[in-house]
Amino acid sequence: MAKANAKFMAPLTPSAELAAIVGSNPLPRTEVVKKMWDYIKKHNLQDAKNKRMINADDKLKVIFNGKAQISMFEMSKYISSHLK
Questions:
Q1: What is the domain count for the chain?
Q2: Which part of the chain is the DM2 domain (predicted)?
C-alpha cells in the first residue's frame, strides 16, 4: 500500500500546455489538481448553474481535447495525458 502512495505522490512533469496553467516544475498529481482548481476559480470557469461543470477557456480547451465544457469528474482523465 505504501508503494502506491509513493507513486501517487511522485512528482510528474506537466506538458507545455498544462505548464501554462500549473507551471513547468514537476509536481505530484494532487498538487496539479489543486492548481487546476485554483486556476478555474480565479478565472471563474465553474458553470454558474451546475458547479460540477467546468467551462474551458483557451488554455483549458487545449487540455480538454477541444471541449468547451467537461465535468469535474472527467478532469483527472484529461490531466493524466498531460503528465509524464
A1: 1
A2: 7-84
The DSSP secondary-structure symbol of 64 reads T
Rg (Cα) of the chain, in Å, rounded?
Answer: 13
Nearest to 80 by CA among 30, 38, 6, 21: 30
Q: Residue 11 in contact with residue 28, Cβ under 8 Å? A: yes
The domain that holds 55 is classified in CATH as 1.10.245.10
- Residue 65: CA atoms inside 13 Å, Cβ hemisphere, count? 9
Query: Containing domain of residue 72, as a range?
Result: 30-84
Tell me the per-residue pLDDT of 13-32, one tens digit each, with 9 for 90 and over. Answer: 999 999 999 999 999 999 99
Q: Are strands 53-55 and 69-71 parallel, antiparallel or unpaired?
A: antiparallel
